[in-house]
Specification:
About 40% of the residues lie in helices and about 25% in strands. The protein has one domain: GMP Synthetase, Chain A, domain 3. It has helices at about 1-10, 40-45, 50-60; strands at about 20-25, 30-35, 70-75. The chain is an alpha+beta fold.
Length: about 80
């Protein structure tokens, strides 16, 4: 899952070498923290959050086989 998030994020940003993904897991959910260069945050979020919403939809759909809820947080 981390690889999927990394590939999508690197395609969106100007500084692909600064894309980092960290996972936090507890008994009910997995939270992936996506960290990008500060100037690329807007590109990952998009106008009115549309790209971020689509990003989260793709990740959630890919995680259907897991029995846990999946969240993606974007941090700078």
């Amino acid at each position: 899952m981390e690889e999927l998030i990394t590939v999508i994020a690197k395609a969106l940003v100007d500084h692909p070498d600064e894309v980092r993904v960290a996972a936090r897991e507890n008994e009910r959910e997995i939270t992936y923290e996506l960290s990008v260069h500060p100037s690329d945050v807007g590109k990952v979020i998009g106008k009115q959050g549309r790209i971020a919403k689509a990003f989260r939809t793709v990740v959630t759909s890919a995680a259907v086989k897991e029995s846990k809820r999946v969240n993606v947080e974007i941090v700078s």
